[in-house]
């Protein structure tokens, strides 16, 4: 078990490093070069989104682990002749726009910019419950309650998994903006979250299989209930016909003298009397 857990952890770490490597490789793709005129439109107080909409995404940034990151973030646009730098405060608003000649400029602690992933929004899924029949058998009630409980558990597991996946996405975005090497504590945290997602997903898969079994039991109990209801309806209809027949026999024989009653009518009268339907109830 320990060896399996270790291998899973190593797999998650390798996956993480591969994601970071791919993310940094993506920053090498060319983008439209901003111009001096476009940077003249960037004003103090604008948001990071407004700046990106005006001049595009930066090529480099100061990492989150930069010692002066408490003063905000610097983003850099590298053009053939000029390097533009926008200073954002900790609230993501523009403080100043700087520019310098491109020749001989040292980028120092700036790292390639990786566009953050759009992390999913958490939304509560509606709880699925079985409708309660008007006349419910004990078998159907037992199966339905177990199915409702399993569906509730699925909703709880799904909410936990979704919340963990959001954290994984957020940490992945954080790692993408850190200078290498990535701190071990962050890698361990990332790996632990992915491990939790895997464990809960396996648990939910098992619960989903149980839901399929319980759904079949509910359907079977429902089919039994329908068969019983149909049988009761048929029996009730048969009893009605017999009551009507005995009522008619009583009507035809009640006022007759014994000597006037035919053998067949006498047999019918005795049959209705045995059923307690002569006279009709």
What does this 3D model show about the protein?
The protein has 281 residues and is of the alpha+beta class. The chain has 3 domains: 1-27 and 119-231, no CATH class; 28-112, 2-Layer Sandwich (Beta-lactamase Inhibitory Protein, Chain:B, domain 1), CATH 3.30.1450.10; 232-274. The chain has 6 helices and 5 strands, in the order αααβββββααα. It has helices spanning 2-26, 36-40, 48-55, 138-176, 184-253, 263-274, and strands at 60-61, 73-78, 82-88, 94-101, 111-112. Strands 4-3-2-1-5 form a 5-stranded antiparallel beta sheet, with no helix packed on it. Strand 2 and strand 3 (82-88) form a beta hairpin. Helix 1 crosses helix 5. The longest helix is centred in the last third of the chain and has 70 residues, at 184-253. The relative contact order is 0.09. Mean pLDDT is 80; it is low at 16-31.
Give a short synopsis of this structure.
By secondary structure, this protein is of the alpha+beta class. The protein has helices spanning 2-26, 36-40, 48-55, 138-176, 184-253, 263-274, and strands at 60-61, 73-78, 82-88, 94-101, 111-112.
């Amino acid at each position: 078990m320990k060896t399996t857990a270790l291998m899973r952890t190593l797999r998650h770490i390798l996956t993480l490093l591969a994601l970071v490597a791919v993310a940094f490789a993506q920053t090498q793709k060319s983008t439209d070069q901003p111009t001096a005129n476009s940077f003249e439109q960037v004003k103090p107080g604008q948001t990071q989104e407004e700046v990106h909409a005006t001049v595009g995404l930066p090529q480099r940034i100061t990492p989150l682990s930069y010692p002066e990151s408490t003063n905000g973030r610097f983003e850099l646009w590298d053009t053939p002749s000029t390097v533009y730098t926008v200073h954002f405060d900790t609230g993501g608003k523009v403080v100043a726009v700087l520019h310098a000649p491109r020749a001989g400029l040292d980028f120092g602690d700036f790292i390639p910019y990786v566009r953050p992933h759009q992390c999913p929004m958490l939304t509560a899924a509606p709880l699925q419950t079985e409708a309660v029949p008007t006349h419910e058998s004990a078998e159907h009630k037992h199966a339905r309650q177990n199915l409702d409980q399993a569906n509730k558990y699925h909703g709880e597991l799904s909410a936990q998994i979704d919340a963990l996946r959001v954290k994984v996405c957020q940490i992945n975005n954080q790692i993408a903006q850190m200078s290498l090497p990535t701190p071990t504590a962050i890698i361990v945290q990332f790996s632990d979250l992915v491990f939790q997602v895997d464990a809960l997903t396996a648990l939910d898969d098992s619960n989903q299989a149980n839901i399929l079994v319980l759904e079949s039991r509910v359907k079977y109990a429902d089919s039994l209930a329908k068969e019983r209801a149909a049988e009761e309806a048929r029996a009730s209809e048969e009893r009605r016909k017999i009551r009507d027949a005995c009522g008619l026999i009583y009507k035809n024989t009640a006022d007759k003298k014994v000597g006037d009653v035919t053998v067949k009518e006498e047999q019918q009268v005795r049959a209705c009397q045995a059923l307690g339907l002569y006279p009709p109830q």
